[in-house]
Amino acid sequence: MDADQPHSPSSPDILLPQPATASTPADERSFHIRLAVFASVVIIAIVGAFVGYPTWQEYISQQEAKLELRAYVNVRALGPPALKEGLSPRVRETIQNTGRTPAYNDAIQAFITVADYPLIRNFERVTCPPDDSQPDKRRWFLGKVPRRETVREAPLTAEEITAIQTAKSALYYHGTVCYRDIFHESHRTDFCMFWKWDAGRLSPSLPCDQGNKAD
Fold it and tell me: N vs C: which end of the chain shows fewer Cβ within 10 Å?
């Protein structure tokens, strides 16, 4: 009667692959392959138990440590004190690493644009350069790093100034900072801020509703 009962899932003899009752040469080969795979898995498990390998909890702890220690870069800027026809608008920016370890500066791409206010379209998102580009411009930095002014090549026109002063347009400063952390992982900070006409003068810098993102 016991012979008619199926084996329970805990039966040890089902752990090993079983050959067919009436086996052919192909079945024999398949059985030996499965047996070799089973033996390899057992050996790897035994070696891992003695040598040791990272657990999921250890992996999570490592990632949390990286997030706590890595660099985080943001951008602050001072806009032009006044608008004047025929003069190019200038913005003086500061790149700041607020993380606990240095950041490796790969590239900063910044633009000054007069566009609709409120902004109705997103500015084009630039691509970070390859890791091996502009090696002479790279450096490690921590804290604030002032940069030279960003100057728009084209001077302001009378139409642009009128649009800003009538609250139809604003002066936008936008771009991307590409950098790496001490773990050699690449990151980027997209930024967008603007100055609008307020009580007869340009307002302090204000963040855009879109275009500000950091990884």
Answer: N
Considering only residues 180 and 135, tell me which one the structure prediction assigns the higher pLDDT: 180
User: What is the pLDDT at residue 35?
Assistant: 57
Q: Which of 139, 113, 136, 138 is nearest to 124 (CA)?
A: 113
Q: Return the domain boundaries, the chain.
A: 22-51, 72-214
pLDDT given at position 115: 97
- What lies within 8 Å, CB to CB, of 17 at 6+ separation is 31, 34, 35, 38
Q: How many other C-beta atoms can be found within 10 angstroms of the C-beta atom of residue 85?
A: 12
Percentage of the chain surpassing pLDDT 90? Answer: 49
By residue count, the chain amounts to 215
Q: Which residues, including other chains, have CB under 8 Å from residue 10's CB and lie 6 or more apart?
A: none
pLDDT given for residue 43 in this prediction = 63
- Topology, domain 72-214: Immunoglobulin-like (2.60.40)
Report the distance separating Cα 74 and Cα 51, nearest Å. Answer: 43
Q: Residue 191's closest CA among 205, 181, 204, 177?
A: 177
